[in-house]
Each structure stands twice: as structure tokens, then as C-alpha cells.
Amino acid sequence: MPSPAPPLAGVLETALYVDDMALARHFYEDALGLVPMFADARLTAYPVGPRSALLLFLRGATAEVVHLPAPHLQTPEAYPMAVQSDGVAETAVTPSAPSRQALARWAERQSPTPQGSVRPVIVVLEPLAAMAQPDDNQLGRR
User: Fold this and answer.
1) Does residue 131 carry a pLDDT above 60?
2) Domain co-membership, 94 together with 53
3) Which residues pair with 82 in a beta bridge?
4) Which of 88, 102, 106, 127 has the highest Cβ tally under 10 A?
5) Is the dihedral of CA 136, 137, 141, 142 positive or negative?
6) Which tens digit of pLDDT belongs to each residue from 43-68?
7) 27: domain CATH number?
8) Element (H, E) at 81
9) CA pair distance 69, 28, nearest whole angstrom
10) CB 61 within 8 A of CB 42
11) pTM for the whole thing?
12) Distance (Å, whole) CA 131 – CA 142
């Protein structure tokens, strides 16, 4: 018999996608009295309780997905990246050595974003066989 799951201590973040950010903000701020801790055209974040946040993302504005071939991989690997206004692309995770090289080559080819902005991108490194025969059930597939 498997051991029981540990109890949940809370939920750090809850993310919702909205079609109209202004309308969603009106509801959460005016009807529920929440005060945003961060807001821009793509994301509004509200503190909820002492250790939680409610994140509202504008549907379709969150990130683009870039698929790159990676012949050394057996399974796809996805990396969230941020392209800064100077064209530098950064990731919050440390990929394995071959993946790091593929991401560095991709990052070198990025053009700058408008001053003061960041372009969110998810880079999916895929084995060549997976790119030739896409599986609609896997995350990030077209």
C-alpha cells in the first residue's frame, strides 16, 4: 500500500486566462476589493492572503512558442525564456550541456524588443523524430 500523500500547506499561485484585461481587473478590484501588486498589458498579479497570488494573464499574449531541432535529445525539453530590450535572451533554469548550447545559439539570433519591454518565449527543443511526426497530445505541439 502506498504511503499517504503529504498534506498541502497552501497554493502559491493561481493563474487564470482572461479575454478582456480591463473587464477582469474591474471585477477583481471593484467587486472583490483586490489591489494589484503588479500590472501591465499582459499580466495582473494580486496578493491573496499572506503567501498566495492570483495571476490574470491576457489570453494569447503570454508567450510565443519556438520549436528547435535537437538531435541529441530523446524527449522534448521546454525552457521559458525572456528576450530583453537589448536582445539578450535569458532563462531561469539551467539546462543540460547540449541543451545549453542550443539555447545559446538561439539566443544569439534574437532581435531586441522595444525599449523597456520583455518578450516572453518558450523554447521547445525537440528530437528530430518528434519534429517530423508531431503528436498533438504533447505540450507545445502545433
Assistant:
1) no
2) no
3) 90, 120
4) 102
5) positive
6) 888 988 887 888 888 887 766 677 77
7) 3.30.720.120
8) strand 77-83
9) 42
10) yes
11) 0.45
12) 10
